[in-house]
Amino acid sequence: MTAPRTAIVTGSTSGIGLSIAEAFAAEGCNIVVNSFSDTPADHAIAEQIAERYKVAAVYLQADMSKAADCRALVAKTAEKFGSVDILVNNAGIQHVAPVEDFPTEKWDAIIAINLTSAFHTTAAAIPLMKKAGGGRIINIASAHGLVASAYKSAYVSAKHGIMGLTKTVALEVALDKITCNAICPGYVLTPLVEAQIPDQMKTHNMDRETVVREVMLDRQPTKEFVTVEQVAATAVFLASPAAAQINGTHVSVDGGWTAQ
Ligand code: NAD
Q1: Ligand 1 test: best mutation among 9, 10, 12, 14, most atoms within 8 Å of CB?
Q2: Residue 1 pLDDT
Q3: Which site among 22, 62, 177, 260 is 20 to 30 Å from 222 CA-CA?
């Protein structure tokens, strides 16, 4: 029997991150669930994962907009579980505004959480992965890491940035049995996206189905949302032995969006 691997998933109390945490738990990994808050509900998520998948799971509070928190998250994980084998940089936020009106504090927060946090966690995790003889770094980028949309200057810049970080890190660790890759999802039906549907229905005077197809999935050729489980399964694949030679690239899970 091989020892369980330890996976950190940043921003994993909801949406894609939570699904990735559950998918690695289903693989028998030790799991670190993370967000910026520190409530009983946050800890309950880790407890439920531990109970459901019969693994060790812990919630570690760390604000991914803060360098010291990012590095401490990795250090605390190593303290608790002895290693960091899989690092999934997933935490992310969004703000939509024309570039001339884009609030500076929103720009700074998006770059910090969606890009700079991955630099800090990666820098802290690599020495541990080298010591352990290997590891997997998986960055949750976006179709917006490859193409742009108007009014999303900070998000698109951060996501393009993380694609560059992914390739650079991949080259630096290629001889250490560590891989670094990105996943580029299209529109994923997370609670955050689901919550926007009623407003869009009102604004456009459309039923749910039409809003989803014509407005939200305008650029997604399958006209279907990506599911969190599909993104999570891609992350599990990238951490599997079959993906050992996949390095410094991305997997698009976007229904054909970026084929256009
Ligand atoms: P979500 O809002 O459901 O989840 C985001 C998670 O990040 C939450 O757990 C939240 O608590 C956490 N988080 C936010 N700020 C944080 C901070 N400062 N420190 C630590 N954690 C923080 O969003 P989601 O849709 O699941 O998005 C997850 C990732 O996937 C993001 O990087 C996002 O850009 C990317 N993505 C989402 C979609 C989509 O359509 N939903 C598409 C492509 C890429």
Answers
A1: 14
A2: 40
A3: 22
